[in-house]
Amino acid sequence: QVQLVESGGGLVQAGGSLRLSCAASGFTLSMYTVAWFRQAPAKEREFVAAINWTGGATYYANSVKGRFTISRDNALHTVYLQMNSLKPEETAVYFCAAAYLYYGSGSDQVANYHYWGQGTQVTVSA
Predict the structure, then answer these.
(1) Contact at 8 Å (CB) between 107 and 49?
(2) Within 13 Å and on the Cβ side, how many CA atoms surround 66?
């Protein structure tokens, strides 16, 4: 059974940090680009960061550059998102998603991802 399971969300004060994890099972994660997206209430899902299947290339939304870091450990079938200097407006459900051997100009598009996790809530208090 294909699964992506996010963890690490929670409540943090503005300026704080969280590290999210995305654990994969049921498929070979090392052949997939993985991205993080987030969705706040009444808003569309938006791209945060992506990492290609080898970990050799990363891509970030402008709003998180310099504060968030995406990484992966294929041996552990896990992708991480380190989030620093969090802002209240970044309160959202964070999702990880996987795309088979795809990394390019569309890596920030929801439609290009085949598998999705259920999400983990991140709440940043002012």
Answers:
(1) no
(2) 2
**Chain center to CA of 12:** 18
Closest CA to 83 of 115, 123, 46, 44: 123
Residue (of 51, 48, 14, 44) closest to 30 by Cα position: 51
Amino acid identity of 67? R
Instruction: Flag residues of the chain having pLDDT under 50.
Output: none
Provide the 3-class DSSP secondary structure of residue 29.
Answer: helix
Tokens of 71: 């990484």
- What's the confidence (pLDDT) of residue 102? 84
According to the model, what pLDDT value does residue 45 have? 97
Quote the CA–CA distance of 54 and 65 in Å, as a whole number.
20
